Amino acid sequence: MNLANRITIARILLIPIFIVLFTKYPDWPEGIYYAAIVFLLASATDKLDGYIARKYNQVTNLGKLLDPLADKLLISAALILLVSQKMLYPWVVLIIVAREVIITGIRLVAVSQKIVLQADRYGKIKMVSQVVAITVVMFDNHPFIFIANVPVDQILIYIALIITVYSGFNYIRNNYHSLKLE
After folding, report:
1. Mind listing the pLDDT tens digit for each residue in 66-110?
2. Are 83 and 90 in contact (CB under 8 A)?
3. How far is CA 156 from the centre of its chain?
4. Which contiguous run of DSSP H or E holds residue 92?
5. 18 touches 39 (CB < 8 A)
6. In terms of C-beta density within 10 A (0-12 exposed, 13-18 middle, 19 or more buried), how is residue 18 classed?
7. How far apart are CA 17 and CA 121, in angstroms?
8. By C-alpha distance, which of 118, 108, 109, 126 is closest to 164?
9. Structural contact between residues 63 and 53, judged by C-beta atoms closer than 8 angstroms
10. Strand, helix or coil at 156?
């Protein structure tokens, strides 16, 4: 197994640590900040594994499958935990997670047909917007709360939601022709 894939697996292994830190949050107020740091660290490995895979010619079909799966697991875990603490509306999370499940389903159909569908640039923009929005929500709108009484965290979540839905439609539109659905 190459270095890029190991980094992707490390991202997956950081998810339970993130969950444990976050779930201790109501009784341990600082826990959410530690959880946010682990979340950011795990998110940063997404950029790192992609960079290493391309730079050292370590792009593999396993990596093309594991990388987006790791992203979906991390983002979904964070969103579900934020709903559990009433920091996000469930309908927002439902739409985002539904998009992720649909795209994963399309990728699984493609794999069964020996077709590997890679993420496109909108998927990457989606991931960055989600990471930024989720992090600001976890930090309870800090430092923006000191600048103005504007719910930047919620604005960022809605922007991420719009980008998420658009990227899903774009992904389906661009890859539908590649699948043999008969």
Report:
1. 888 899 999 999 999 999 999 999 999 999 999 999 998 888 888
2. yes
3. 14
4. helix 90-112
5. yes
6. buried
7. 29
8. 126
9. yes
10. helix
Task: Report CA torsion sign: 182, 178, 167, 101.
Answer: positive
Instruction: Name the residue range of residue 27's domain.
Output: 3-178
Beta strands in the chain (DSSP E): none
Distance, CA of 148 to CA of 152 (rounded, Å): 9
Coil vs helix vs strand at 141:
coil
Please answer whether residues 92 and 157 qualify as being in contact, where contact means their C-beta atoms are separated by less than 8 angstroms: yes
Cβ neighbours of 182 (radius 10 Å): 3
Nearest CA to 70 out of 106, 92, 41 is that of 41
CA 78 – CA 31 distance, rounded (Å): 14
Amino acid occupying residue 42: A
Please tell me the pTM assigned to this model: 0.90
Spatial distance between the Cα atoms of 54 and 70, rounded to a whole number of angstroms: 18
CA distance 89 to 26: 18
pLDDT digits 0-9 by tens, 36-57: 999 999 999 988 998 999 999 9
Q: What CATH code is carried by the domain that includes residue 33?
A: 1.20.120.1760
Give the C-alpha separation, 153 to 176, whole Å. 34
Number of structural domains the chain divides into: 1
